[in-house]
Write a structure and sequence with these properties.
about 170 residues; mainly beta; Tumour Suppressor Smad4; seven-stranded mixed beta sheet; five-stranded mixed beta sheet; immunity; TRAF-interacting protein with FHA domain-containing protein A; innate immunity; FHA_dom
């Protein structure tokens, strides 16, 4: 079973999740791709938001070669929006194996995905949940410090009088 917990900061106002079934588990045939996006003719999981692509991303269920282990592969299907799976950024048509537990982000959307082991061969199940608080905050992940309108952050002033430290631009 793939448990997915959805969050968007405007979910109460815009009701973008109203077409998702949060009540019960749903079965998806193993040979079908689970597609998430705005187009209800193509996607089984619809997000009612004009900023979401027709097909935002897809999940493909598969079994590893010479193994009974089942996995999911996630692919970004949006030409406009990058998909972030934990800390991996996926451009259009990029795909990776979905970790056993991860956070998927695009735009203001946050989705906690958790894979539960099972015996299914012909199908897998999805169980959708709705989060009331941001998933990133709930998991105590660091968020970047906001920069005030003056353009100076408080950490800029606290380093005065200290020698500068050179760091690589990729370090945080």
């Amino acid at each position: 079973c793939l448990h997915m917990t959805f969050y968007h900061p405007c979910q109460d106002d815009k009701m973008m999740f109203r077409c998702l079934n949060f009540q019960k588990r749903e079965q998806v045939r193993a040979d079908e791709m689970a597609k998430f996006g705005r187009d209800s003719n193509i996607c089984h999981y619809n997000l009612l938001d004009t900023r979401v692509s027709r097909i935002q991303f897809s999940l493909q269920f598969y079994r590893k070669l010479n193994s009974s282990e089942s996995c999911f592969e996630i692919k970004n299907m949006s030409k406009k929006t990058k998909l972030i799976v934990d800390k991996t950024e996926l451009g259009y048509l990029n795909k990776i194996d979905l970790p056993w537990k991860c956070i998927i982000c695009f735009g203001d959307y946050q989705i906690l995905a958790e894979i539960q082991e099972g015996e299914g061969v012909d199908y897998f199940e999805t169980h959708l949940h709705l989060a009331q608080v941001p998933i990133l905050q709930e998991r105590h992940l660091p968020s970047p410090e906001p920069v005030p309108e003056s353009g100076f952050s408080s950490s800029s002033f606290s380093s005065q009088g200290k020698n500068p430290i050179e760091i690589d631009e990729n370090e945080s």
